[in-house]
Design brief:
alpha/beta, 7-stranded mixed beta sheet, 11 helices
């Protein structure tokens, strides 16, 4: 007698609310969207909290892929899993990540990089595996952002772009570790490897820049100079390790000369956290001869090309790029979450606003006006 296999119920299409961007710079619209079931090696997540990152704004203002659901810095709960997923089960708490880790490609196995060849930065607004979207409205595709799209009550991500975390960790706090705070700490620790007693200058004192400052402080840097044109950021920056604040508008001399004067010839490390390629040259010039290292983290809106006089490099200065602070998300993020639970790193202090989902446009306005560090958007009722 032939035995019949048990019937496994497949996940259904979910209809939920999402903040859809219909055009560059246009206010987001809360729409009813359909979210398809997860495909092979994917998971569908109920988004609990998501915070607004500067790169969301940069893409919203300048990129041509629309309609689109932005958001990538998020926490949530696994609602369903696709075929072949063994790492996650329904009910797991997760961090989403905008670059994944397959663990098998040349980059992942090298021990030298976090740029996964399979699950690297997705720029086309689709899923990694089949180049299609999981969102739609009346049959029309709605595109993804960084293969996460957390400005939706439910989203689908590749299982390699999520990190399981403890159910006791506050989701409304650790969402910041899925991008900004982790990126800054990693730039200081992994990319620059800041040494004890060194001098550091940071251009741009948003969440990423202040996370670099925190990382430098924890590494024992003796001088941490913050540079920003917003005078209100100076006092707040001290709580994250900044020892001196410079507003370029208040100086008659070029900012790089001011920094050289303060550091006795130039900083050991400089960080460009603005997204201005012109500032990269300034950051290089603010470094010392011989061993000065500049790390660039910002995402530029315009002019992606970097130009610098070759003499800067002949004198021994180095320029390095940093994506997500060099962290391998699955391998490394659990240790950062653990550091947070032990109160070894600051995370809560970057949260300046908590907003309901329907106020997502307010979050955009606050960040554009320089009035916030991180707005945490609460999705769940």
């Amino acid at each position: 007698m032939q035995m019949s296999l048990p019937c496994v119920k497949q996940p259904d299409v979910i209809t939920c609310k999402a903040a859809v961007a219909w055009g560059a710079g246009k206010p987001l619209v809360i729409e009813e969207v359909n979210v398809n079931p997860p495909q092979a090696m994917e998971i569908r997540i109920k988004v609990v909290c998501t915070s607004l990152c500067r790169s969301d704004i940069t893409a919203w203002e300048s990129q041509a892929i629309f309609p689109r659901i932005f958001g990538h810095e998020a926490t949530g709960i696994v609602e369903s899993v696709g075929q072949g997923v063994t790492e996650f089960t329904e009910g797991d708490h997760v961090l989403t990540v905008f670059i994944g880790e397959c663990g098998k490609c040349r980059q992942c196995t090298s021990g030298k990089s976090n740029i996964c060849e399979v699950l690297g930065l997705e720029r086309r607004g689709v899923m990694h595996c089949d180049q299609r979207t999981r969102f739609s409205i009346n049959g029309k595709p709605i595109y993804h952002y960084c293969a996460v799209s957390s400005f939706s009550e439910y989203t689908v991500v590749h299982s390699g772009c999520a990190v399981k975390i403890s159910s006791v960790v506050p989701l409304e706090k650790v969402c910041l570790l899925s991008c900004g705070v982790a990126a800054g700490l990693g730039a200081a620790w992994n990319v620059a490897d800041i040494s004890n007693g060194s001098s550091v200058v940071i251009f741009g004192l948003g969440t990423v820049g202040l996370s670099v400052a925190q990382g430098a402080k924890l590494r024992g840097a003796s001088q941490i100079i913050g540079v920003d044109t917003n005078p209100e950021k100076g006092e707040n920056a001290k709580a994250f390790g900044i020892t001196a604040f410079i507003n370029p508008h208040d100086s008659k001399d070029p900012i790089q000369q001011v920094i050289k004067n303060l550091t006795g010839g130039g900083a050991d490390y400089s960080f460009e956290c603005i997204g201005d390629t012109g500032m990269v040259t300034t950051a290089l010039q603010a470094c010392c001869d011989g061993w000065g290292l500049t790390v660039t983290l910002g995402v530029p809106k315009v002019k992606p090309e970097v130009t610098a006089h070759y003499g800067i490099f002949l004198t021994g200065r180095t320029l390095k790029g940093s994506l997500f602070g060099g962290w391998k998300p699955k391998s490394d993020l659990p240790s950062l979450v653990d550091m947070y639970t032990k109160k070894e790193i600051q995370v809560d202090e970057y949260i300046t606003h908590n907003l309901p989902f329907e106020d997502v446009n307010k979050a955009f306005n606050l960040m554009r006006e320089g009035k916030c560090l991180r707005c945490v958007i609460h999705m769940a009722k």
